[in-house]
Design goal:
binds manganese (II) ion, about 500 residues, binds zinc ion, alpha/beta, eight-stranded mixed beta sheet
């Protein structure tokens, strides 16, 4: 059953049935809120019998006796609560959300006795709940046996904390983050017959109601701009390509914008260099970069970030067809540089190179960060635990790495250099679109680097983290929305005026 949490904050709550969730750390005697939710001290006996020690994310489920102000008490262990970081609080919230079933109202006591649990922790806990509650079941028409109906169930959640005012304020930003992540997850999870370039561009256009300026370039306009690399990828599909430009102007007018560019291959068959059948359905997620950029612009706008931010996404479908581009074709990019297409399955970089050039040329941003499910090779290198980070600027790389640690959307920096760059020199054109199997993620990054000039730039290869990612306390979805929280944190920590 899909659950929707209606979250509010209060200093105290009048308990009358429902579920109470209490947090307890290893040092405190009793859990938070014990005096109001558990006056009969059922907890002490239950903890003894179950040998509950309150270590991190452990839990104790208690059916409250007659006369209790609630029906059930759920105690979650926090470990040493004073040592918890932001991501730990997200995980606790996600862990709590997973246990909320068959109940209409829940009171959650987050102020662990003897520990300064700030407003930020309460807001992070709530964000974890929202991220965990997400499930993509748009296309499931049959309910499972344990579900009373297929409809979404709304659960009223009251988070009890001494820091109500501050927590509420921070939570409005948390909601903006959750909505951005969920938008990105939805876009990645949507089937490819439903979400083509035109349909995706309409989803981006919908951000106008938040205050984003959205422009959509059609094939004709891209042709006029000379985007031969992007258009070459699209020419095998009956669905026309789109380039979407999103602008959020939350900073001072004179502030140079920050720019995020996303690969949006709505489906990647590989083209004439067609992929094997096994697992090809996953290639509906080859627009994970564009989804993250769209989700990020949603978040920055919805929380009113004091920054000028640009999002540019290149939307195409890569299909084999009588009109598809061939290995051996030479295309001319918007930059004027020519590219020999060696493998039509190395299409993401062909889309991004024109989107990067366009963004740099038009907006002169203070930095460009592109996100792309670019190479299978990054999975070989890093699995799905880190995204690959390629960067021409140490300051930006350090800021990104720090944001990755803060959000647990982790990055690992990979090398760039002129010896790798040589690997994409072509016999017939300025460059070729693959450097072969060895160092496949690095030569893909070298290719992109040829289109960014002197602008500080980072490429995040999210092929391992955007989809099919590890399911954890805050994500149970195939499409993870990776990148939204990371880049929101990057902006918040370094680029708001
Ligand atoms: Mn491909
Ligand atoms: Zn691809």
């Amino acid at each position: 059953m899909s659950v929707k949490f209606e979250i509010s904050f209060a200093k105290s709550v009048r308990l009358n049935g429902g579920l109470a969730i209490l947090l307890k750390d290893t040092d405190s005697e009793l859990p938070a809120g014990a005096e109001s939710a558990d006056p009969a001290n059922v907890f002490a006996k239950a903890a003894r019998i179950a040998r509950f020690t309150a270590k991190g994310l452990s839990s104790l489920d208690i059916v409250a006796p007659e006369g209790s102000p609630v029906d059930r008490i759920f105690v979650i262990g926090t470990g040493k609560a004073k040592d918890l970081n932001a991501h730990d609080w997200l995980k606790l919230g996600g862990g709590a959300a997973a246990k909320i079933r068959n109940v209409d109202k829940v009171a959650i006591f987050v102020d662990v006795p003897g520990v300064e649990v700030g407003a930020k922790a309460a807001a992070d806990f709530a964000l974890g709940m929202l991220l965990r509650a997400y499930s993509f079941d748009t296309y499931k028409t049959k309910k499972k046996d344990d579900e009373d109906n297929g409809a979404q169930k709304t659960v009223k959640v009251t988070i009890v904390t001494a820091n109500v005012v501050a927590a509420k304020k921070l939570f409005s930003a948390s909601e903006a983050i959750a909505d951005g992540v969920i938008l990105a997850r939805d876009l990645v999870n949507e089937p490819p017959n439903v979400l083509g370039p035109v349909e995706f561009s309409a989803k981006a256009k919908a951000l106008e109601k938040l205050g984003v300026e959205v422009e959509i370039l059609t094939e004709r306009e891209m042709r006029r701009l000379g985007m031969g690399a992007l258009l070459g990828v699209a020419q095998g599909s009956v669905r026309p390509p789109r380039l979407v430009i999103m602008q959020w102007k939350g900073g001072k007018p004179k502030d140079k914008p920050v720019a995020f560019i996303g690969k949006g291959v709505v489906f990647d068959t590989g083209g004439i260099s067609i992929k094997p059948a096994a697992g090809m359905e996953d290639m509906k997620g080859d627009m994970g970069g564009a989804a993250a950029v769209t989700g990020l612009i949603h978040t920055l706008t919805a929380r009113g970030a004091k920054v000028n931010a640009i999002g540019v996404i290149g939307l195409v479908e890569n299909m084999p067809d009588g009109n598809a581009q061939r290995p051996g074709d030479i295309v001319t990019s918007m930059s004027g540089q020519t590219i020999e297409v060696i493998n039509t399955d190395a299409e993401g970089r062909l889309v991004l190179c024109d989107a990067l050039w366009y963004t740099n040329d038009r907006f002169k941003p203070q930095f460009m960060i592109n996100l792309a499910t670019l190479t299978g090779a990054i999975l070989v290198a890093l699995g799905n635990l880190h995204a690959g980070l390629f960067c021409n600027d140490d300051k930006l790389a350090n800021e990104l790495t720090a944001a990755g640690l803060a959000t647990n959307e982790r990055l690992w920096r990979m090398p760039l250099g002129k010896d790798y760059d040589k690997m994409i020199d072509s016999k017939f054109a300025d460059m070729k679109n693959t450097g072969g199997r060895h160092a496949g993620s690095i030569t893909a990054a070298q290719f992109l680097k040829r289109f960014v000039q002197e602008t500080p730039w980072a490429h995040l290869d999210i092929a391992g983290t955007a989809m099919g990612s590890i399911q954890d306390e805050i994500n149970q979805s195939w499409g993870s929305g990776f990148g939204v929280r990371l880049l929101d944190e990057l902006v918040r920590a370094n680029y708001e005026s």
